[in-house]
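Support request, please re-run this one:
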Amino acid sequence: MRTATIILPEPVDVAMPEIIDLAGFDEDGIADGPGLRAVVFVQGCPHHCPGCQNPQTWPFGTGTKVSTEELYTRIVSNPLTTGVTFSGGEPFSQAEALAELAERLHGRYDLAAFSGYTLEGLLQLGKANPGVLRLLGAIDILIDGPFVAARRDRQLLFRGSGNQRILDVPASLRAGGAVWTKDPLWIGESGDARAAEY
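Re-run finished. Output below.
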């Protein structure tokens, strides 16, 4: 009696979409960068800055689980959107998933991220976590540094305190250090939004 040989199909390497722990999504934000922006608020933050405007985003693992594919679809479905901002929470705590999303959006939108880390801190984190460098490489603007209540200034564009910087990420990565953006949409026509150095 002959036995049949069963040939199994070769395994297919199908990339699964990354999952983001989401605190909220604003499809037409105007406070987190110039123009009409999709704002992705991630859940989870290690910084716990006193006076934070979003303390509900501090606990990790308590948000809504959303795939990068779903967020991509939601973002591109609004024809008026000119930019995308990653906020939180701390976006770089979910760097790999956000990098996947940012890479798909790159070139189509102005991409920005807020972080309680400084650029210098993120470059250090990136030595152990390649997702951090991958996300930095996919965004245009970084608003960096923790919120410092003693330096709170309501006159600043897109920032809460004067220690935070609005950085041109591609230029900063080329220079190996922080380079302020010169884009008047981000810093104002007069450049008044530039903070004093640390």
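The first strand starts at residue 19 and ends at 29. The two ends are 82 Å apart (CA to CA).
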